Amino acid sequence: MWILLIIFGIILVYFLFFWIIPFMLKGAIYDPSRKEAVEKMVELAEIKPGEKSVDLGSGDGRVVIEFAKRGAEAHGYEINPFLVILSKRNIRKSGFKGRAFIHWKNFWKADLSEYDIITVFQVSFAMNKLEEKLKYELKFGARVISNYWRFPNWKPVRYEKDIYVYERKIYPFH
Asked: What is the value of pTM for the model shown?
């Protein structure tokens, strides 16, 4: 009987912290990127020395950590406070504190104009709104790397294994 209560409690906590609370905070569910997808995102980003990256909806920080490992000053915006705590713990354990940063903030309210690389793993209904936001905030030469989901009106400059790369080459963004 106790084992069933413990299992039920674990399931309840999982749904509460990673599904219900994020929806209440107007965030997406926690659905971490696969290791292979993260590696492909980093590869396709072609990180140059001194670049700053940001992961929108950074979850447990795995993308932020990988970008920091490859030399970027890596940031992440996460709205779920439990994932922020987990991310900061993961960054500390990885040894990239000082190169990888997690911000407890809604990325919709953040100014993204300082970043050279923006990574996203959002759901389809968010991509249209995100396309509009980025159209006005991306600086010239910035790259957007999207895991699985495409922007409705932009054409990727590269595509491999469900990873799309978009680049700000002209204004307005196409």
From this structure: 0.83
